[in-house]
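User: For my dataset I need records formatted as: sequence, then structure tokens, nothing else. Please produce one.
Assistant:
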Amino acid sequence: MKKGFTLAEVLITLAIIGIVAAMTIPTLVNNYRKKDTTAKLKKFYSTMIQAIQLSELENGTSANWSKKDMAYDEEGNIDTEGQQQASDEFLDQYILPYIKYSKITDGTYVNQSRKVYFADGTTIEAKNGSCMDFYFDSNGEKSPNEWGVDMFMFLFCNSASDQKCISGITNSSVNFGAYTGCKEWSNFDTRAKALEMCKNNASTCSVLLQKYDNFEFKDDYPY
């Protein structure tokens, strides 16, 4: 006489498999996302460093590059059109000729440059300020579009005083990197400080990843 499983046994087995899958799949997906983001962050950072170095060969040292001041209207409010123009002009002259990109579209937000797409699906937008802010999105149009998760901020600074914001207050020789703080009280000179700031202000998480963790998401990373 042949024996088999009863319907109840099959249903119980499927239920157990479903529970195990529900518990493990989110962790696997999250781990994959972090590894994928790590690879893209490293590639982006390397691409920008190389682009700046190539640009300096043709445009001279970055300390002498022309970058407009922030644009304001007659009432003292930010001139969004002027800001976009300043950001676009900087990209067109100093960055875009030295990187490979797939397309350019209108920017996502006012007061920022056009959006530049790379072949791996990542994007950047620039924003003119004391430095030129670069907003990197590791998955482009896809969600969640959250700081510290798939969006990260980096700065290009060509003046010695502003370079302290990305290299630390005691060093002003670095022109591209994550914001490390420009003052004694805001200088993220230890990993503990950078981690705490990342928890409280996700847009600053880039310095934790770049300066201390080699763009890898450690177990205590908050996002």
